[in-house]
Automatic annotation (TrEMBL):
InterPro entries: AAA+_ATPase (IPR003593), ABC_transporter-like_ATP-bd (IPR003439), ABC_transporter-like_CS (IPR017871), P-loop_NTPase (IPR027417), PhnK (IPR012700). Keywords: ATP-binding, Nucleotide-binding. One of its GO terms (molecular function) is ATP hydrolysis activity. The lineage of its organism: Bacteria, Pseudomonadati, Pseudomonadota, Alphaproteobacteria, Rhodobacterales. This is Putative phosphonate transport system ATP-binding protein. It comes from the Bacteria. GO terms for biological process: organic phosphonate catabolic process. Residues 5-250 form the ABC transporter domain.
Length: 256
């Protein structure tokens, strides 16, 4: 099977400081990869490089596109990369405000994504928006409300609907449950897990919360000081960590 995403030797410095160094991974269709590590270990830098938000100094990111097969994402033109971001890829930010348009209604937040990929029939767009609000457990009578009127958990669910409505194959998630109450986190995780399975999504999930990867991720990558120190099946890494740093993470000695 061809990997959906192949990452080879991705390295990014900020001046003299290393963001992430020589990271490689293969992600297969339908697979969820978790990236964990304490604050400053390079998780967000890596995710930004993979999603095309940040240009690495070195390395390759190859994505198996629907239309043209494997393509080097970093070598794509900006419009090509933007199109990929609208169709095949999705990015769920930790802060819903970074992924939503706060000034327009919930329905428009979902519907405008469909319009961006060519949908024109107003009735169908609204119907799909209602359907997606339902799938993320937002009542249909909230469709005309702006996200500002929603709780943090609802905003995050709306961001997820906005991202998934176009049927992407790969979702990048940056601390998707960060900043939410524990009970809200659990519900959101359940919802995310259901959607990932139902849609057969591939995902890369960055988090410092091991409970998130335990629930969502098939495989795990542990980062420290910009480098990958351990990788493997999630249960294996968490139940039988090999690297001293992972052992500290798992035993909660480190405050991540
Ligand atoms: N814009 C920036 N300018 C300079 N240095 C940066 C910048 N962004 C990140 N860094 C540095 O790069 C390294 C990796 O940071 P990064 O934010 O990727 O880690 P992280 O694991 O995502 O941390 P957190 O969980 O706190 O977001 C750190 O040493 C950080 O200080």
């Amino acid at each position: 099977m061809t990997p959906l995403l192949q990452v080879k030797g991705v390295t990014k410095h900020y001046g003299a400081r290393l963001g992430c160094g020589d990271v490689s991974l293969d992600l297969y269709p339908g697979e969820v990869m978790g990236i964990v590590g304490e604050s400053g270990s390079g998780k967000s830098t890596l995710l930004s490089c993979l999603a095309g938000h940040l240009m690495p100094d070195a390395g390759e990111v190859i994505y198996d596109t629907r239309a043209q097969g494997p393509r080097d994402v970093l070598g794509m033109s900006e419009p090509e990369r933007r199109m990929l971001g609208r169709t095949d890829w999705a990015f769920v930010h930790q802060n819903p405000r970074d992924g939503l348009r706060m000034g327009v209604s919930a329905g428009a937040n979902v519907g405008e994504r469909l319009m961006a990929v060519g949908a024109r029939h107003y009735g169908q767009i609204r119907e799909q928006a209602v359907d997606w609000l339902g799938r993320v457990e937002i009542a249909a009578d909230r469709i005309d409300d702006r996200p500002r009127a929603f709780s943090g958990g609802m905003q995050q669910r709306l961001q997820i609907a906005r991202n998934l409505v176009t049927g992407p194959r790969l979702v990048f998630m940056d601390e998707p449950t960060g900043g939410l109450d524990v009970s809200v986190q659990a519900r959101l995780l359940d919802l995310l897990r259901g959607l990932v399975r139902e849609m057969g999504l591939s995902a890369i999930v960055v988090t410092h919360d091991l409970a998130v990867v335990r629930l969502l991720a098939d495989r795990l990558m542990v980062m420290k000081d910009g480098a990958v120190v351990e990788t493997g099946l999630t249960d294996q890494v968490l139940d039988d960590p090999q690297h001293g740093y992972t052992q500290l993470l798992v035993s909660s000695v480190l405050q991540v």
